[in-house]
Amino acid sequence: MRIKAELTFPIELKDEATLCYLCKKFEIVLNIIEASFSTDVGWAIVVIEGAEAETKKALEYLTGKSVEIKNTQML
Collapsing DSSP states into helix, strand and coil, what is residue 12? Predict the structure, then answer.
């Protein structure tokens, strides 16, 4: 399963390696298409690839971290 999504990270996560942890915690491949981070907010357009169950768990993990997920597309 491949999903393209736009992620918006809250200021609380600015010092956390959220995407790195995501790849270590779940059996997925993460491709960062485009990203921008500042001291207040960050956003990234990513492609998440993996088994359906792992991909869904990865998205749930991000939601649980207050990462906003929008413009999700199946590829």
Answer: helix
Looking at domain 2-74, what is its CATH homologous superfamily? ACT domain (3.30.70.260)
- Map out the domains of the chain as residue ranges: 2-74
Q: What is the mean pLDDT of the chain?
A: 95
CB 38 within 8 A of CB 20: no
**Angstrom distances, CA of residue 72 to CA of 3, 35, 48:** 7, 16, 10
**Cα(75)–Cα(66) distance, integer angstroms:** 24
Specify the 3-state DSSP secondary structure of 21.
Answer: helix
Total-model pTM:
0.90
